Amino acid sequence: MKLIKILLLGLLSIAVSLPATASTENLDKINERGTLRVGMSTFVPWAMRDKQGELIGFEIDVAKRLAADSGWKVEFVPTAWDGIIPALLASKFDVIIGGMSITEERAKSVLFTTPYSHSGVQVAANKILAKGFSQLSDFDSRRVNIAARRGAFTVQIARETFPKAKILQFDDDAQAFQEVLNGNAHAVIASSPKPEQEVIKHRDLLFLPFTKRLSKGNEAFAVRLGEEDKKAFFDKWIEDRTTDGWLSQRYEYWFATLDWQDQVSEGQ
Length: 268
What we know:
Blueprint: H1 2-17, H2 25-33, E1 35-40, E2 48-49, E3 55-56, H3 58-70, E4 73-78, H4 84-89, E5 95-96, E6 110-112, E7 120-126, H5 136-139, E8 145-149, H6 153-161, E9 166-170, H7 173-181, E10 187-191, H8 194-201, E11 206-207, E12 215-216, E13 222-224, H9 228-243, H10 246-256
Parallel strand pairs: 1-4, 1-5, 8-9, 8-10
Antiparallel strand pairs: 2-3, 6-13, 7-10, 7-11, 7-12
């Protein structure tokens, strides 16, 4: 009996010392389906429609390359930004690839990958309404209206930076910028390079009141909490595409040039 007990204890110790096999059940579902379902929201130049109605942009390039490298097809699921996390949690798609900045609040609901891009937040202002404005304090007034995209990280930045101002929220960046162009808001706050590019397009109406960005963002893919296998897989892909320079090359094209502008449909 004593010998049997010793043998059992020995077997138990060996079992405990062996590493547990990581579950891949979430990746298996994508592999079985053969299609990666990507939740995204349209905003220039992350994702937008070209003149033929097809999706183009930095995020579209990223998702297509990820799927191709992984042997999957890709299905885009356009979703309103303020409902994109609930839609992920409701399993409407597998991952959010949509320029989502990592925040502590969001990390309570979703699991973020390692960052794959680093943008920032900038302000574009109406030349008439904000004439002479050059300091943060100039915009921090109850008389000032600041437009932003509903549900975006920029809303939080706007509230923290301009707590006295009235923050007007819109479903997409295009509507937020149009509000400023129409003279209904003093400024719009958005992720770069949208403010810089809109100022170039509308030099007669808009200007950049600040030379430095208000914040630097770290954008990541988002999956559901507990989906560690998907996070690990995506992390490795991001590492590989960062190392070979592909991510920086595509970011440079979409964010540092306007070579793609003629492809975009009007109103974006």
